Amino acid sequence: MPTLLQADHPDAWRDFRAPPAFPLLSPEEWSLLPAEAHFILHTDGFVHARCSVWTESLPMHEGAQPGAVGHFECVDAPAGEALLGAACGHLLGRGVRLAIGPINGNTWMKYRLVTGGGKRPPFLLEPFHPAFYVEAWRRAGFEPLTEFHSGLFPPQVDDDPRLDRVRSRLDALGIRIRNLDVSRFDDDLRAIHAVSTVSFSANLLYSPISADTILALYQPLKPRLQPEFVWIAEHEDRCVGFCFAIPDLAQAQRGQPVDTLVVKSLATLPERAYAGLGLLLTQRAHQAAAAAGFHSVIHALMHPGSRIKHFGKAEMEVFRTYTLFQRRL
To answer: In the prediction, which pLDDT does 160 show?
Structure first.
């Protein structure tokens, strides 16, 4: 029978063997957003499943302090179900009555499972896992909490009269849009973080995170970033909006031509003066995609309430859905 092990230090797992699909947590992953407990399910040192739990990383939800279950991987649905049962038992023992996952601590980190979509391969930075992961969570008693989707357009380059008016008004205010400056990468990321903490604060399960943690998250991406696909809007020497996009380099990893731009994150300050800035930044992304010869622009991992459903003359083609799950304990 598989054995459950709880560990409080990465060295506790150094003698265990994990499947190539999910190596055990590195010291960097372990320390990025420290969890309260880490679990593995193993037989004779071979790992069948792993996860971590947090009891205070998420904000209150529906009057309860939820626990987060993340870093989840498994070799099959029964192993995943057994591990999730143990994680929920741990949370219940700590007085937690609501478990949410998969989420690596909070919504700044990796979270959600793919629960629907066609045959389009995963794009860069998209969650990806075997289909039986969803079965494991459902078998462990988890139900959907909220859903997200990714969709795509062909690049929209036609002028929109509404955006002409927005552009004129923002120009008159003195708002300047520039590309990411790699020579001051850390400063630009801190500016993006400052806007994100305001723009995303009303999102479900939002909790703040330090700028230093954002820097640690994005440093590994720095070699792959192309500054011409990241835009920063500034007004009176402060960042008031940004659009973070990156070519779908996963296509190149599959030996295919890169013909898609992924819009990963878009945010503006909510002040009335900046109304329309998000659409203007979206237009910049589509124009840049067209100029690069790309055939598609993906708007990634959006809440269904996102207003980017119609842009230019096209309607978004939703090709993937994702779910965040919950379980009452």
So the answer is: 74
Residue 257 has pLDDT above 80, yes or no: yes
Residue 51: CA atoms inside 13 Å, Cβ hemisphere, count?
34
Rounded distance between C-alpha atoms, residue 273 and residue 165, angstroms: 13
Q: Which domain holds residue 259?
A: 155-294
Query: Are residues 144 and 161 both part of a single domain?
Result: no
Question: Is the pLDDT at 90 greater than 90, yes or no?
Answer: yes
Average pLDDT, the chain: 93
Count other C-beta atoms under 10 Å from residue 117's C-beta.
15
Are 136 and 194 in the same domain?
no
The pLDDT of residue 1: 60
- Domain end position, chosen among 148, 176, 194: 148
- For residues 132 and 112, give the distance between their C-alpha atoms in angstroms, rounded to a whole number: 14
- What is the domain-level CATH number for residue 18? 3.40.630.30
Cβ atoms 88, 136 nearer than 8 A: no
User: For the ranges 179-188, 277-286, 304-313, which has the lowest average pLDDT?
Assistant: 304-313
Alpha helices in the chain (DSSP H): 27-32, 77-93, 132-139, 161-173, 185-199, 211-218, 249-253, 277-291
Tell me which residue of 79, 76, 75, 53 sits closest to 66, measured CA to CA: 53
Euclidean distance between CA atoms 156 and 285, whole angstroms: 9
Mean pLDDT in residue range 56-68: 95
Q: Which residue has the tokens 């029978």?
A: 1
> Which of 257, 321, 274 lies closest to 116 in space, CA to CA?
321
Closest CA to 214 of 239, 246, 233, 192: 192
Q: Is 196 helix (H, G, I), strand (E, B) or coil?
A: helix
Q: Contact 270/198 with Cβ under 8 angstroms?
A: yes
For range 293-303, the mean pLDDT? 95
Using one digit for the tens of pLDDT, what is the confidence trace for 6-20?
A: 887 778 888 899 999
- Flag whether 130 is in a domain: yes
In a shared domain, residues 242 and 159: yes
pTM of the entire structure? 0.94
